[in-house]
Amino acid sequence: EALMMRLSPVIGRHEAHRLVYEAAQHAQGAGLPFIDCVMAHPDLAAHARALDLAGALEPRAHLGESSAIAAEVAARFMPPR
């Protein structure tokens, strides 16, 4: 989704979805890493560097407050030591 949203302003949401879907299907079918298929896709590779598509797939960029939220929830249900 992050990849599609990064592409959307440049090529439109529907086209971005279609191209990312193609790359995902190829990765799944061929057993290849998704990012490799993104970078090999001619229509996506054309935007890869300018839009930092690899950076859009970096998990740390999408974690937000999840670590703090998980710790808070765990603290509610774990007995004190």
3D architecture notes:
- By secondary structure, this protein is mainly α.
- 75% of the residues lie in helices and 0% in strands.
- It has six helices and no strands.
- It has helices spanning 2-11, 13-30, 34-40, 42-51, 53-56, 66-77.
- Helix 1 (2-11) packs across helix 2 and helix 2 (13-30) packs across helix 3 (34-40).
- 12% of the residues are buried.
Fold topology:
Blueprint: H1 2-11, H2 13-30, H3 34-40, H4 42-51, H5 53-56, H6 66-77
Please outline what is shown here:
The protein is built from six helices and no strands. With 81 residues, it is an all-alpha fold.
Any descriptors?
81 residues; mainly alpha; 6 helices; 75% helix
Point out poorly predicted stretches: none
Q: Main sheet?
A: none
Topology as H/E string?
HHHHHH
Inertia-based shape: elongated
Global structural class: mainly alpha
Q: State the helix count.
A: 6
Please state roughly what percent of the residues sit in beta strands, choosing from under 5%, 5-15%, 15-25%, 25-35%, 35-45% or over 45%: under 5%
- Helicity range: over 70%
Radius of gyration: 17 Å
Roughly how many Å apart are the termini? 41 Å
- DSSP, total strands: 0
Mean pLDDT level? 88
